[in-house]
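A common beginner's mistake is to predict each chain separately and then try to dock the pieces by hand. The better habit, illustrated here, is to supply every component at once so that their relative placement is modeled jointly.
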Amino acid sequence: MMRWGVLVLLGIGLISFMFVPGDGLFYLPEKWPKPLYNFDDNPVTNDGFILGRTLFYDPILSQDSTVSCASCHFQYTAFAHVDHSTSHGINSRVGKRNAPGLMNLAWYPTFHWDGGVLDLNGQAINPLTHPDELGETLNGVLKKLNRNTYYKNEFKKVFGVEHIKTSHLLKALGQFTVSLVSANSKYDSVMRKESTFTEQEQRGYSLFLKYCNQCHTAPLFTNFEFKANGIGPLAAYIDSGRAVITGRPSDVFLFRVPTLRNIEHSFPYMHDGRISKLKDVIHHYANSSNWVKPISKELKTKNNLLSPTEEKDLLKFLKTLTDKEFVFNPAFRYMGN
Amino acid sequence: MLRFLFLFFIIPNLGFGQHTVKLMVGSAPFQLHTNYLINGTDSIRLDQFKFYVGNQHGDYQLVDASDTTTFNLPFADNLLIIGMDSLANTSGKLEGAFDPLLGMYWAWNTGYIQLKLVGDYTTAESNIPFEYHLGGYRSPFATSFALHLPPEYDQIQIQLEQFFMTLPIRTTPKIMLPGAASQQIFNAFHTTFE
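With all components supplied together, the output reads:
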């Protein structure tokens, strides 16, 4: 009896050990491409990751200490802004674009819906200083951090510096955000032959490969190119997308292809969050009669491209891209100072 | 220890063959917050005037008219880059001359303002505030240019008088992004180097 008890305890111990989520630090999933992030310039350490996470959740970064990065990037929505078509910042000011989910950023060649930003570290300056977001100045936030004993100590520990400068702040945030790797969805376990799709998921996967994979290319589920998906501009304001950056007329209304990983969680959809349900997004792509030009050539101009059953099958497949371990990983949560 | 560090910073600036930048309007040194007569009737005043100078090794200095110490360049190369090349624009360094705190970083469109001119233009009828944040490294609107300094030169003299007259302040008093307009002013800036 005793012996069985010990065995059971041992078993529980083993199981809990196996399910202990990782420390949250960046890792390279098997068979994935080489990351683009410059880890030589900013190697991720445990202390740096924790410092970045603390900053990510700290409203000290906003002008009136009300809003943090996490205000628009919730973990439970794969770090997108839940239920907000476009995100809002200090004084409830509303921006123009939907806050994208943050994951697998080490592989991104460009950031933002228009691809204007080229490096992850520098990206954070945008939400920090944008009047519709955190509305702070770099000078202001560095002053606050340099007056704060906790941060002074932590930055010294991580970067060996007495005085916190722009690059230290951005590198610390970068160590956290680059570590947000999502590569353990059901899809991934099927690819690793650890589990299998249901028949419906398998049908959806075939449809995905036929119609979606060209732009939403696995394993990152985006080819990072800029495309027009026929949704057209909003009446309220014209956002020319990629053309804002390049100045090329052919880039008007082109936006970056977003990843489909954790797409079930990262509603609402499209660059301005116009569509709130994933099934309606699928319906949009399967029916060209409502499209507005320009339309990228990868899209099949056809009504009823998918039968109602096929739309449901595709939806089921997309839900296999949900990575519960990522969305619920306690290492990505706010832990307090 | 601190005193020695101080020496390290001082020595390169006093070293041989270091370049210095000299800003001129006609025969007088240029000064910020000063009205300069243009075409007999108008006048121009600059409150900010900054631009980048670099070398091929990716070293850069922000020359800032409000701080004459920045007129001494910390490198002595004869091939200089006025503005900033694409490599430096996208290096992601964010330190030293690249620190976004200097107010020359375009966060939403990664890259640097390579030439910043802010001031007032006064005509008989009106006063026109102007603001030029000029730069860009993507083809075809790249702005930076190479400057070959003859070996016997260690001074880069910039004559601003003509340049002030070419600024399109009456038609376009604000340019804040890369593009043809930005490039045009930068090309005019090129002709100021003597």
